[in-house]
Amino acid sequence: MIDDRLTMQVYQLFSQFLSVVGTLGLVLYAYALLGIIFIPIIFIYIVLAGFYRQSSREIKRIDSNQRSYIYSSFGEQLIGLPSIRAYRQQQHFRTKLQAATDVECRAYAMTIYIQRWLGIRLDFLGNCLILGICLFGVGFADSVSPAKLGGTPFPPPSTNFSLLTSTVTLTYGLTATQAFSQIVNFYAQVEQEVCVIITHTLPSC
């Protein structure tokens, strides 16, 4: 099951990466000056992704350890159920299992919190990218073609080929922001799944 998830996530990671490369190539082909906007945004993406990966990896390890403890403890209680009932320790083991479940739920909740932390910042950077493209279009309104900046993605058949290849700069800029976010998420998920596999095969990850 882990191998199936890991294979799918690696496939999605490379798919999104190629999508970003194609989008950047199209945007830079239409307007090379827009590369100035991408440089600081990509740098900030890398910094945020590094912090998110390290944090999510540790949180995933804590969540996996707590979940393994719950499963093993529950199995031991099932095996020793006659002894637990004989000594009337049902409440003790019930409280112990509930406490372990609460700890695991807190670790799982932290994974949701850090995903939202990353999502807010990536959405902000994406909006900054779109704002930069729009300001570029306004600042160079006399020399920038509106069709190149953000025309219809389905132009009529009579449209010139050069116009067709660069008619969706703004639209593909929106796609790039989503692809950047997906790359960070999939890369972190691949790293987490690899860490889970190593954790189950070695004493420490």
Shape: elongated
Average of per-residue pLDDT values: 75
Number of alpha- plus pi-helical segments: 7
The termini sit apart by 19 Å
In which range does the helix fraction lie? over 70%
The biggest beta sheet, please? none
How many separate domains make up the residues? Answer: 1
Description:
By secondary structure, this protein is an all-alpha fold. The chain has one domain (2-62, 110-201). The protein has seven helices and no strands. It has helices at 2-30, 35-79, 81-86, 90-139, 146-150, 161-165, 169-201. Helix 1 runs antiparallel to helix 7 and helix 2 packs antiparallel against helix 4. The longest helix is centred in the middle third of the chain and has 50 residues, at 90-139. The chain starts with a helix and ends with a helix.
Brief sketch in words of this structure:
With 205 residues, this protein is an all-alpha fold. The protein has helices at 2-30, 35-79, 81-86, 90-139, 146-150, 161-165, 169-201.
Provide the fold topology:
Layout: H1 2-30, H2 35-79, H3 81-86, H4 90-139, H5 146-150, H6 161-165, H7 169-201
Helix pairs in contact: 1-7, 2-4, 2-7, 4-7
Attribute tags:
205 residues; mainly alpha
